[in-house]
Amino acid sequence: MLVLTGAGISADSGVPTFRGEGGLWRRHRPEELATPEAFERDPRLVWEWYGWRRRIVAACEPNAAHRALAAWQAADAGVRIATQNVDGLHGRAAAESGIAAVAAMLLELHGSLFRIRCLSCGRRAEHRDPIDAGSVSGLPRCAGTGGCRGPLRPDVVWFGESLDPEVIETAFGWAGAADACLVVGTSAVVQPAARLAEVTREAGGAVIEVNPDRTPLTPLATVSLRGGAAAIVPRLVASDQPSVTSR
Q1: Terminus-to-terminus CA distance in the chain, angstroms?
Q2: Which domains does the chain have, with CATH numbers?
Q3: DSSP E strand boundaries for 17-175
Q4: CA dist., res. 244 & res. 123, Å (int)
Q5: How far apart are alpha carbons 92 and 103 in whole angstroms?
Q6: What is the C-alpha to C-alpha distance for residues 74 and 62, in angstroms, rounded to an integer?
Q7: What is the pLDDT of residue 143?
Q8: How far apart are CA 230 and CA 8, in angstroms?
Q9: 180-184 and 2-5: which strand pairing?
């Protein structure tokens, strides 16, 4: 089973959607800040924005859908999650449940707000410390071996960047081998993640969609369930050994 999740699964946790009503920050559009060019031009401003986003997301808690999926993974080694979200709530749900092995069954396709990547040595690491964006000198620097001290950036996929080839290759491998793909809270318009459900369907698997609204994926879905993730997902995965028959 492959589970593909998008912003809708975190809506019940209070995480604001990227393009939602709160999509503007000060006088800047996210598309003008989440780019390599923006970071090169003004890293302090970009880090200030990401620090603000991290504070908002850190105050949110995994909801019933995150926890149900984490518990399902713990009970069934065949369940894999690929998420388009960068909020880290799938990982927190697993950690809070004491399910350490779930990390190996989770792909964060677009990265994480709570990881950093060095522009000099490429080192990646978890990072939840407060961001001092008052000046360029206060921005995070690499603490890797050899005294790198290179500039650190958020480890997320920005506009104009490609997904990590290893991550997307793994995701498509999971999709092609899955008996079913459960798609939760995604508009199914962001590529290449939107193709994952199609790959499962083309390989003969079922597609189950959970979304309050009709999406471009709906005509492809074996079953479409209308409603919020926190209400539907726990009921859907309540069985330890769920089965879905394609038709």
Answers
A1: 17
A2: 2-17+62-115+163-236 (3.40.50.1220)
A3: 80-83, 106-108, 111-118, 124-126, 152-156
A4: 41
A5: 10
A6: 16
A7: 85
A8: 10
A9: parallel
- On the question of a cis peptide bond just before residue 62, with omega within 30 degrees of 0, the verdict is no
The pTM for the full model equals 0.88
Among candidate residues 33, 19, 11, 28, the one with its CA nearest the CA of residue 156: 33
Q: Give the per-residue pLDDT at 8.
A: 92
Which of 28, 66, 90, 110 is catalytic? The answer is: 110
DSSP secondary structure letters along 165-193: HHHHHHHHHHHHH-SEEEEES--S-STTT
Map tokens 């990401």 to a residue.
Answer: 50
**pLDDT (tens digit per residue) in 186-207:** 987 778 888 999 999 999 999 9
Is 211:226 a contact under the CB 8 Å cutoff?
Answer: yes
pLDDT over 80 at 226, yes or no? yes
CB 206 within 8 A of CB 222: yes
- Collect all residues with Cβ–Cβ distance below 8 Å to 32 and sequence separation of at least 6: 38
* 125-180 per-position pLDDT tens digit: 999 999 999 899 889 999 877 778 899 999 999 988 999 999 999 999 999 999 99
In angstroms, the CA 68 to CA 72 distance is 6
10-56: pLDDT as tens digits: 999 998 765 545 443 455 676 678 999 999 999 999 999 899 889 99
Instruction: Tell me, yes or no, if 110 is annotated catalytic.
Output: yes
